[in-house]
Amino acid sequence: MNDSEYRSWAELPSDLTSSILIRLGVIDILENAQKVCRSWRRVCKDPSMWRKIDMGNLLAKIIYYNDLGIMCRHAVDRSQGGLVEIYIQYICNDKLLNYIANSSSNLRSLRLVKCYTIKNNGFVDAVVKLPLLEYLEVTHLPLTGESLKIAGQSCLNLKTLKLNYSTCKRTLINGFDNNAMEIAESMPELRHLELLANSLTNTGLNAILDSCPHLEHLDLGMCFNIHFDEDLKKRCSKRIRVVKGPAI
């Protein structure tokens, strides 16, 4: 192949360029890819590039913490309301979460991992603006039962709920079975439920089984107040395809 047969990356069809650049992370797109040439910048500004935003595992990059929040807002803005999935680790606070909610009424999937500064009021203020939410994951954030109840009442399509409280003192914050009762009361369409290090007891679990008839996958890792006697094991095996938990 001679030099005349080589093509510039800038001359690639926009759909092909998009399929390549969409594999990059938020930072790589905003800090590098969009600065390569005009055609790449045009592709990087297309709202279809920002239907899914991944802001996880970014603290290892050499960039200021506050700048990550600014970049997240910028990415949300570029979605122009078309954001469907977002994953945020560490950097989200009440203000950023509500910015996302105000701009993303079409959001289906929200993952908040180790976002320690989010308060219950901030979570509630945001989740009531996300009626299409189907997937909610919250780790290391002590949400109250009332907050979860509001989430269930606001997000009627919620199919997956994942809560990891492994660093939270749940029994001191909410008491036994509080989360379980609120989940049972407000989330009847759940298919996948993951409660890690939760304080629920057999009473709370039975309430969930009574009220969530579509449940297919149940993970109760580190839920040490659950005692799987023969009756409970039999009930779970008949109703749920996959069950994980202590001493099963």
Descriptive report:
- The protein has helices spanning 14-21, 26-31, 38-44, 65-79, 94-103, 120-127, 145-154, 170-173, 178-186, 202-211, 230-239; strands spanning 52-55, 85-89, 109-113, 135-139, 160-164, 192-196, 217-219, 242-244.
- The protein is α/β, with parallel strands linked by helices.
- It has one domain (52-244): Ribonuclease Inhibitor (Leucine-rich repeat, LRR (right-handed beta-alpha superhelix)), CATH 3.80.10.10.
- Strand 6, helix 10 and strand 7 form a beta-alpha-beta unit.
- Helix 4 (65-79) packs parallel to helix 5 (94-103), helix 5 runs parallel beside helix 6 and helix 7 (145-154) runs parallel beside helix 9.
- The protein is elongated, with a radius of gyration of 21 Å.
- Mean pLDDT is 87; it is low at 170-174.
Summarize the structure.
By secondary structure, the chain is α/β, with parallel strands linked by helices.
Please give the structural blueprint.
Blueprint lengths: L13 H8 L4 H6 L6 H7 L7 E4 L9 H15 L5 E5 L4 H10 L5 E5 L6 H8 L7 E5 L5 H10 L5 E5 L5 H4 L4 H9 L5 E5 L5 H10 L5 E3 L10 H10 L2 E3 L4
Parallel strand pairs: 1-2, 2-3, 3-4, 4-5, 5-6, 6-7, 7-8
Tell me the series of helices and strands, N- to C-terminal.
HHHEHEHEHEHEHHEHEHE
Per CATH, the architecture is Alpha-Beta Horseshoe
Strand segment tally: 8
User: CATH topology, which one?
Assistant: Leucine-rich repeat, LRR (right-handed beta-alpha superhelix)
Q: Would you identify the regions where 5 or more consecutive residues have pLDDT less than 50?
A: 170-174
The SS-based structural class is: alpha/beta
- What is the 3D form? elongated
Give the full name of the CATH homologous superfamily.
Ribonuclease Inhibitor
Q: According to CATH, what is the class? A: Alpha Beta
Helix content: 25-40%
Number of helices: 11
Strand order within the widest sheet?
1-2-3-4-5-6-7-8
Strand content: 5-15%
Largest sheet: 8 strands, parallel
Mean pLDDT: 87
Distance between the termini: 63 Å
Pfam family, one: F-box-like
Domain F-box: 6-53
Organism: Camelina sativa
InterPro entries: F-box-like_dom_sf, F-box_dom, LRR_dom_sf
